[in-house]
Amino acid sequence: MSISPPPTASSSYPVRTDWTQEEVTKLFALPFNDLLFQAHSAHRHFFDPNQVQISSLLSIKTGACPEDCAYCPQSVRYQTDLENENLMAVDDVIARARAARKNGATRFCMGAAYRRPKAGQLEQITAMVKAVHDLGMETCATLGMLDRQQADQLKDAGLDYYNHNLDTSESYYPEIITTRSYQDRLDTLRAVREAGLKVCCGGILGMGESRQDRIDMLHTMATLPEHPGSVPINQLIQVAGTPLEDATDIDPIDFVTVIAVARLLMPASHIRLSAGRTRMSEEMQALCFFAGANSVFFGEKLLTTDNPDSHSDRLLLQKLGMRPEPLRAGSL
Ligand code: SAM
Ligand code: DTB
Ligand code: SF4
Fold first, then answer.
1. Could you tell me which residues come within 8 angstroms of residue 167 by beta carbon, excluding any fewer than 6 positions away?
2. Ligand 2, atom 9: nearest CA belongs to which residue?
3. Paired residues of 219 in beta bridges
4. Ligand 1: which atom is nearest the Cα of residue 114?
5. What is the pLDDT of residue 11?
6. From 96, 107, 140, 263, the catalytic residue
7. Which residue stretches of the chain have pLDDT < 50?
8. Which of 96, 193, 272, 277 is catalytic?
9. Known active-site residue 201
10. Which end of the chain has fewer CB within 10 Å, C or N?
11. Are 308 and 278 in contact (CB under 8 A)?
12. What are the extents of the domains in the chain?
């Protein structure tokens, strides 16, 4: 017998964009079991708790990025083992999207190591977006900074989501990236929102940030004019050669706490358990799902780093009685 509520948004549960810092701080201070109970209850107002949205990632242009993001293996400034690759051909991207669809993914996300795409590059990428859209998948892209005109161009090609992360708090941000500002990020998010694209915006945990930085980052996301439709929460993958290669792992309970607070602040959004799952136990992932995570990346690679293999992911979902979320009617 199923005790799941219908997977529709509830009108009786408020979706607020006026959270105060104090309110967010209080959520972080709740005893863990109280926080989890509240977060899971909020989750059930909006989602079937036994469904998980599955996305697949492809790096369509790899490495040699001029930015200096301290976590990133793709920055030209750091000596990592990565092989640089030019922008992929459209047909090759279509073949990879078909394979992802066969593997259960309903959303296909194309990532490029750009500071900002140039006109010719964007033209080739819009052809990829159109083709993937025509396969019946939701489309997502993450290409760096965009202005409004570029966002419009992607929207016209059939792009559903644009991923652009805040990554951390405004005050910790300069410790992580110096080649573009927090305001640049907010400007791109505005252009994307105003073009009518759905926003995918999250962050990375385990970069040496404080609890206050986590509070500030979630507060910024939850007080944007509209909540991001998807909120990826990444655990830092410490890649050899990057400045953060020796960063200390975030405590798993602190990680779950962030998932739960994100669920409470943005109750109708998909919260994605993103990078870092290869080093999370099944129990930890199960706790994240209970706390409100309801989206993951499937496939052996994220962009350039490893992700759990699909077979073990499928077994995990089976053990938990969870199933992939079908594409919603009208979502394309
Ligand atoms: N260049 C574009 C940009 O930065 O917006 C798109 C690609 S970038 C790789 C997308 C996101 O991946 C980053 O914003 C960051 O949150 C995440 N990411 C990159 N390297 C990571 C790592 N080592 N561990 C966890 N997340 C990472
Ligand atoms: C996001 O927040 N996480 C994904 C997606 N958005 C593009 C990327 C994770 C990348 C991890 C490092 C890598 O594989 O290169
Ligand atoms: Fe470039 Fe994006 Fe990596 Fe930063 S995160 S170095 S912008 S690919």
1. 69, 71, 173, 176, 177, 185, 203, 204, 217
2. 275
3. none
4. 1
5. 58
6. 140
7. 1-9, 329-332
8. 272
9. no
10. N
11. yes
12. 21-320
What is the DSSP code (8-state) at residue 171?
Answer: T
pTM of the model: 0.92
CB atoms within 10 A of CB 123: 12
Which atom of ligand 2 is least distant from the CA of 305? 14
pLDDT of residue 81: 85
Q: Is the CB of 204 under 6 A from ligand 1?
A: yes
Which phi and psi angles does 227 have, rounded to 5°? -65, 140
Active site (annotated) includes residue 288: no
Please state whether beta strands 138-142 and 107-112 pair in parallel, antiparallel, or not at all (unpaired). Answer: parallel
pLDDT tens for each residue of 49-71: 999 998 889 999 999 899 999 99
Closest CA to 271 of 219, 314, 233: 233
Place of tokens 């036994």: 50
Provide the 8-state DSSP code for 246. Answer: T
Give per-residue pLDDT as tens, 115-170. 999 999 999 999 999 999 988 899 999 999 999 999 999 999 999 999 999 999 99
Q: And the tokens for 66?
A: 């001029």
The dotted CATH code for 21-320 is 3.20.20.70
Closest CA to 98 of 56, 42, 40, 35: 56
Are 51 and 322 spatial neighbours (Cβ–Cβ below 8 Å)? yes
